[in-house]
Design a protein that fits this description.
two-stranded antiparallel sheet, binds zinc ion, alpha/beta, globular
Length: about 240
């Protein structure tokens, strides 16, 4: 493995998520079989989620293969521009929250991609949309420091924009907030994001990058293709 990041998978779903098929134990076994040194077990939560203590007990009960560090997490969407997250009260033992742009953070709550596209068609200026989005990401990192950005910028193509629309100023401000708040940025296999420009900005700002598959099936744990290309390109431009 040419990149140290590829020995970790920082975003692996289990059956605690509605849409995933493998157990925690199957994921841990797959991580060891893939030769990983670190795996983060993470599942989707909402404010109403009640199973987090049960999940933590199940992680504690796992038989851990030698040489594998197992980390915990919950994945939650950003709700609004104040940086609120859709999370329940979290017991001790959750190592990091995965902060996800599943919806667009609106002033008073999350907006679906089609709503954002309609509002843009009706005159919401692209630059204002991008400012609001990046400001919300930074507000969330400051409100919840020491966490991890899940597939950051994955919402942009859904609203008809791309990471290249962000521009250097927004990208650098975002990367500085990443570094200042000890936020991990995952390069995500499923979504192929963030792209090289944003990753380079994180590296230049002193922030930390990790790799993730966002797997929903143990067969996918630690198996990278797009992440390798992104890290290769980052290495070539550093
Ligand atoms: Zn997600
Ligand atoms: Zn996920």
């Amino acid at each position: 493995m040419s990149h140290a990041e590829l020995r970790g998978d920082y975003h692996v779903h289990s059956t605690f998520s509605d849409d995933a098929v493998s157990t925690l134990a199957e994921n841990v076994e797959a991580a060891a079989a893939a030769g990983l040194s670190t795996v983060r077990l993470v599942d989707h939560v909402r404010q109403s989620t009640a199973w987090v203590p049960e999940y933590l007990a199940a992680v504690r009960a796992l038989r851990l293969p030698d040489g594998l560090t197992v980390l915990t997490g919950v994945e939650a969407k950003i709700l609004d521009t104040s940086g609120a997250l859709d999370i329940p009260a979290l017991p001790d033992g959750i190592d990091r929250i995965l902060i996800a742009d599943h919806q667009f953070p609106g002033l008073e709550g999350p907006l679906g991609p089609s709503t954002v596209r309609e509002r843009m068609a009706a005159g919401w200026a692209k630059e204002d949309v991008l400012d609001q989005f990046v400001d919300a990401l930074m507000a969330t990192m400051r409100r919840y420091p020491g966490n991890q950005l899940a597939h950051c910028f994955s919402i942009l193509p859904k609203i008809g924009l791309s990471e290249s629309d962000l521009g250097a100023e927004r990208t650098q401000a975002w990367a500085r907030a990443v570094a200042e708040t000890d936020t991990l940025v995952e390069v995500n296999e499923k979504w192929g994001c963030p792209e090289v420009g944003a990753l380079l900005a994180v590296r230049n700002a002193g922030g930390q990058i990790v790799a993730s598959t966002d797997s929903h099936n143990a067969d996918e744990v630690g198996r990278y293709a797009r992440v390798v290309s992104l890290l290769d390109a980052l290495g070539a431009s550093s």
